[in-house]
Automatic annotation (TrEMBL), chain A:
Protein name: Large ribosomal subunit protein mL43
Gene (UniProt): Mrpl43
Alphabetical keyword list: Mitochondrion, Ribonucleoprotein, Ribosomal protein
Annotated segments matching region Disordered: 104-132
Residues covered by the Ribosomal protein/NADH dehydrogenase domain: 16-90
Species: Picathartes gymnocephalus
InterPro entries named among the record's database cross-references: Ribosomal_mL43, Ribosomal_mL43/mS25/NADH_DH, Thioredoxin-like_sf
Predominant cellular place of this UniProt entry's protein: mitochondrion
Origin superkingdom: Eukaryota
Family: Belongs to the mitochondrion-specific ribosomal protein mL43 family.
CC per GO annotation: mitochondrial large ribosomal subunit
GO biological process, one term: mitochondrial translation
Automatic annotation (TrEMBL), chain B:
UniProt keyword Hydrolase, yes or no: yes
Annotated ranges, domain Large ribosomal subunit protein mL44 endonuclease: 68-203
Protein name: Large ribosomal subunit protein mL44
Compartment(s) where it occurs, according to its Swiss-Prot or TrEMBL record: Mitochondrion
This protein's UniProt keywords: Endonuclease, Hydrolase, Mitochondrion, Nuclease, Ribonucleoprotein, Ribosomal protein, RNA-binding, Transit peptide
Its job: Component of the 39S subunit of mitochondrial ribosome. May have a function in the assembly/stability of nascent mitochondrial polypeptides exiting the ribosome.
GO BP: mitochondrial translational elongation; RNA processing
Domain Large ribosomal subunit protein mL44 dsRNA binding: 233-329
Region of interest called Disordered, as start-end residue ranges on this chain: 20-39
Organism: Picathartes gymnocephalus (White-necked rockfowl)
Length: 132, 333
């Protein structure tokens, strides 16, 4: 069955900073809808007062990866879309994929080896066994 | 560039702009960026503090900031798409080592005897029930899917699926090591196994045997994908086992013949030995020496007889129609 890989989202922002306006709007308007639509993600909202680091959305996944996205100067719709994107990701590292294809069954009829189409030692060929 | 370094260090404020320039912190792995204290202004101290932070022992998630146990448990039950009764689930996460360590701590803090005794039940009962149900259900699944497989084979498969490494691997990827209450961290695999089986027991009590059966099927049987039967089941004498199987089906003993051979006089010969019953081919297997090839051919023949080849039909994950199967599992407990 499908198990959402996102465990929890932590929204760290400051209540007075100017670039955290989108984060504050998100918390006031849209955060409850997001939490209701995604009941398997725990949403933590932690405002830290006073001037501090930039507002950040931290996502923790089931395999332990922690991904942080800076949400300074983003509107609340953009933050919602970002949260949905993080919720649909898995926690695998975002690196270059070497090949866009992978298969667990590389061969259907059996992989070729030098003896595939050679007749075996035991086949007996006599004058009577040849087709008429 | 300075702009990228500032953004990465989340020091967009002019106060800390001076501190955020030109260090190696921006390239640290993602785990190091979490819960970073505000970067030190003294440049010569930063490397030392970073080293201290990386060498600190791993901490439980419950001791880091932003943790709500009740919310996490609710999210856990939603993530697995199952309705748990939350009390049973909370007892399922409590391990006996946790109760003992808590009582020790309270006794050391000097509390009265009434306060020392915790009113928590541990999860051993639930774990036992979960283990029994899981084993019975898996054995029944395999008997239905591979009717030719003997009892020892089914037992080996069930033992593999309920073994410590597999269950603790599944539990670790379902975030059980954050929720389980245990004395040591990181959680040892037998504790994780017990916790996961207790979760299965709790599900059995709350939702009934059918849903628990579907749960066990969805999380345990995909672990068999890509695995060969004889990797899981150790068979010492495949030829003897094959002879037993053939006598049960009233066929004559197999006759091994060399079908193909390559490089006989070299260091790496390859022999293909075929097993023939009444001059009809049963199976063919390769090997380095004639004995190895014969053993391999016996294994291939056993795989064909038990229906566990690589090209068998994949497992059927569709919704079950009757509840009879699950009821049989419960009655056999």
């Amino acid at each position: 069955r499908y198990v959402r890989q996102l465990q929890r989202l932590q929204l760290l922002f400051s209540p007075t900073a100017s670039d955290a306006r989108g984060a504050r709007q998100f918390v006031e308007e849209v955060a409850q809808d997001f939490a209701r639509q995604h009941p398997d993600v725990v949403l933590y909202v932690s405002p830290h007062s006073g001037p501090g680091p930039a507002p950040v959305l931290r996502a923790e996944y089931l395999n332990g990866t922690v991904r942080e996205e800076v949400i300074a100067s983003k509107t609340s719709e953009e933050i919602m879309q970002l949260a949905i994107k993080l919720a649909n990701q898995s926690g695998l590292d975002i690196i270059r994929i070497r090949k866009p294809f992978h298969t667990d069954n590389p061969s259907v009829q059996g992989q070729w080896h030098p003896l595939t189409n050679k007749p075996s030692i035991l086949t007996v060929q006599g004058p009577r066994l040849q087709p008429q | 560039p300075a702009m990228a370094a500032r953004l990465l260090l989340r020091a967009a404020r002019p106060l800390l702009a001076g501190a955020g320039r030109g260090t190696g912190f921006g390239t640290a792995p993602s785990t190091a960026l979490s819960t970073a204290p505000p970067p030190e202004k003294k440049r010569w101290l930063r490397a030392y503090l970073e080293l201290q932070r990386l060498q600190a022992p791993p901490q439980r998630r419950s001791e880091k900031p932003n943790w709500d146990y009740h919310a996490e448990i609710q999210a856990f039950s939603h993530r697995l798409q199952e309705n748990f009764s939350l009390d049973l689930l909370k007892t399922a996460f409590v391990n006996p080592c946790y109760i003992k360590s808590e009582e020790e701590r309270r006794r050391q803090l000097g509390l009265d005897k009434d306060a020392v005794a915790l009113q928590l039940q541990d999860n051993t009962g639930l774990a036992e029930r979960g283990l029994r149900f899981a084993r019975a259900y898996l054995a029944q699944c395999f008997e239905g899917a591979y009717p030719e497989l003997p009892a020892k084979g089914i037992e080996a498969l069930v033992n593999f699926l309920t073994s410590q490494e597999l269950v603790s691997y599944v539990a670790r990827n379902l975030s059980l090591q954050d929720l389980a209450l245990c004395r040591d961290f990181p959680v040892p695999p037998d504790v994780l196994q017990r916790t996961f089986l207790a979760v299965i027991g709790a599900l059995l009590e709350s939702s009934g045997p059918e849903r628990t059966g579907i749960f066990v099927r969805d999380f345990f049987i995909p672990q068999l994908i890509g695995k060969d039967l004889f990797e899981i089941w150790e068979v010492v004498n495949p030829m003897g086992l094959l002879l037993e199987e053939l006598t049960k089906r009233n066929t004559s003993a197999p006759e091994p013949r060399i079908t193909r051979q390559l490089g006989v006089s070299t260091v790496l010969p390859v022999y293909f030995v075929g097993l023939y019953c009444d001059k009809k081919i049963l199976a063919e297997g390769p090997g380095e020496t004639l004995l190895a090839a014969e053993e391999e051919a016996a294994r291939v023949a056993l795989r064909k007889l038990y229906g566990y080849t690589e090209n068998r039909r994949p497992w059927d994950y569709s919704k079950p129609k009757q509840g009879l199967a699950a009821k049989k599992a419960v009655s056999s407990n």
